[in-house]
Specification:
This protein is of the alpha+beta class and about 350 residues long. It folds into two domains: about 120 residues, Rieske [2Fe-2S] iron-sulphur domain (Rieske Iron-sulfur Protein, 3-layer Sandwich); about 210 residues, Naphthalene 1,2-dioxygenase Alpha Subunit, Chain A, domain 1 (Alpha-Beta Complex), CATH 3.90.380.10. The strands form four sheets. It has a seven-stranded antiparallel beta sheet with strand order 11-17-16-15-14-13-12. Helix 1 crosses helix 6. The longest helix has about 30 residues. The N and C termini lie close together (about 10 Å). Bound molecules: FE2/S2 (inorganic) cluster and fe (ii) ion. Fe (ii) ion binds next to loops.
Length: about 350
C-alpha cells in the first residue's frame, strides 16, 4: 500500500456532489456520493449488496438509492428499505459499508479506514479555502500517476524553469536559496526573495510601484496536500518569512487523493486575499492554473509510465528533491503507524 489509512481524503468539490449519485474510487475503494434532501452528503460503498452492480448507476428515491438491476432500495444508512420483490421481508443484514463524510473548506471529505476513528477535527487545515476575507476556487483533474510523484513535484520548485518555461518559469527563481525544514509531520520548503522587482502579475494586484519582498512557501500537509503561500509586500512594510500580511497574498491549494497506487484525483485551486469580489479574476486565475497544471500532468503521467517500463531502475534523490523526500518519509512513518 502507498497511502495512509485512517485519514480524511478529499473526495470531491462541494459543487460536484448533488442529488445524482457520483461514483469515485478513493484509496482503492469504490465509493458513491450524493446529497440527501437536507443537503448533507452520504458516502456508501459503490456496489449493490445483491449482485454488485455499482450503486452510482442507481436511481435516487428520497434519501435512498434504488439499484438499477433488480431494484433493491438502499437507504442512506447502507441497509435496504425495500427488497427486489416488495413482499419479501427486508433483510437488514444485507448492507453496504457507509463511510464517514464531512464538508469543509469547500471540499467533501471521506474517511478511509476504521470508521470509529473518524473525527472531524482531523480534517487537514486548508484554512485559506474558507477563511473570512479570502476567495477560493479551482478545479479537478484525473491524473494517471502515484500521488506521491505529485507531492514530489509540488515540493520541488526548481521544475518551474523547464516544465513551465513558457508559463511561469523565471530564471531569477533559481537564484534564490531554498530552505527545507521538517516540523513534526509538516514539511516546509521556503524561498524568501528580499528587495526584488515584482513580476507584472503581483505589481498589478499590489497596486503600487516599488521594490518588494517576495515569497514562495510550500507546505506538505499529510496525508496528501501541498499548499503554497505566495505573494509580495512593499519592502518598507518590513514583512518577514514568519509574518507577511502587508501586501497581497495567495495560496496555491493542491490535494492529491489516491485513486489507485498509480492514479490520483487532483483537486487544485487558488485562494487569495486581494480582489476578492472580482469574479473575472477568479475565472482568469483558474484558466491560468489549468494551463500550468496541464504542463505538470503531462510530465507526471509520462514519468509514471516510464517507472512501470523500467522496473530495474529506481528513483534517485538529489538535493533538489529534499522536500519531496521528507514528505515521503512522513507518509511512510504514518503508514507504519496504521
Ligand atoms: S444487483 Fe442490485 S438489486 Fe440486483
Ligand atoms: Fe508545476
Amino acid at each position: 500500500m502507498t497511502f495512509i489509512r485512517n485519514r480524511w481524503y478529499v473526495a470531491a468539490w462541494d459543487g460536484e456532489v448533488g442529488a445524482a449519485p457520483l461514483g469515485r474510487k478513493i484509496c482503492d475503494e469504490n465509493i458513491v456520493l450524493y446529497r440527501k434532501l437536507d443537503g448533507t452528503v452520504v458516502a456508501l460503498r459503490d456496489a449493490c449488496p445483491h449482485r454488485l452492480l455499482p450503486l452510482s448507476m442507481g436511481i435516487r428515491e428520497g434519501d435512498a438509492l434504488r439499484c438499477r438491476y433488480h431494484g433493491l432500495k438502499i437507504g442512506a444508512d447502507g441497509t435496504p428499505d425495500e427488497m427486489p420483490l416488495r413482499n419479501d421481508p427486508i433483510n437488514k443484514k444485507v448492507c453496504v459499508p457507509v463511510y464517514p463524510v464531512t464538508e469543509r473548506h469547500r471540499f467533501i471529505w471521506v474517511w478511509i479506514g476504521d470508521a470509529e476513528k473518524a473525527d472531524v477535527e482531523l480534517v487537514p487545515d486548508l484554512w485559506p479555502c474558507s477563511a473570512e476575507g479570502w476567495t477560493f476556487d479551482g478545479g479537478y483533474t484525473h491524473v494517471k500517476c502515484d500521488y506521491r510523484l505529485f507531492v514530489d513535484n509540488l515540493m520541488d520548485l526548481t521544475h518551474e524553469t523547464y516544465v513551465h518555461s513558457t508559463s511561469i518559469g523565471q530564471i531569477e527563481l533559481m537564484e534564490s536559496p531554498l530552505e527545507t525544514r521538517v516540523e513534526g509531520d509538516r514539511v516546509i520548503l521556503s524561498r524568501w526573495m528580499p528587495d526584488v522587482e515584482p513580476p507584472p502579475f503581483w505589481r498589478t494586484f499590489l497596486g503600487k510601484e516599488g521594490r518588494v519582498n517576495r515569497w514562495q512557501i510550500c507546505e506538505f500537509i499529510e496525508p496528501c496536500s501541498v499548499i503554497i503561500d505566495v505573494g509580495v509586500s512593499p519592502v518598507d512594510a518590513g514583512d518577514t518569512l514568519e509574518s507577511h500580511d502587508s501586501g497581497v497574498r495567495g495560496f496555491v491549494i493542491d490535494s492529491m487523493t489516491p485513486e489507485t497506487e498509480t492514479s490520483c484525483h487532483y483537486f487544485w485551486g487558488m485562494a487569495r486575499n486581494f480582489a476578492t469580489n472580482d469574479h473575472g479574476v477568479t475565472l482568469r486565475m483558474k484558466d491560468q492554473q489549468n494551463i500550468v497544471f496541464g504542463e505538470d500532468v503531462e510530465v507526471l503521467e509520462a514519468q509514471q509510465r516510464s517507472i512501470a517500463e523500467n522496473p530495474d531502475m529506481r528513483l534517485r534523490v538529489f538535493n533538489i528533491d529534499a522536500g519531496g523526500a521528507h514528505a515521503r518519509r512522513v507518509i511512510e512513518r504514518l503508514m507504519a503507524d496504521g
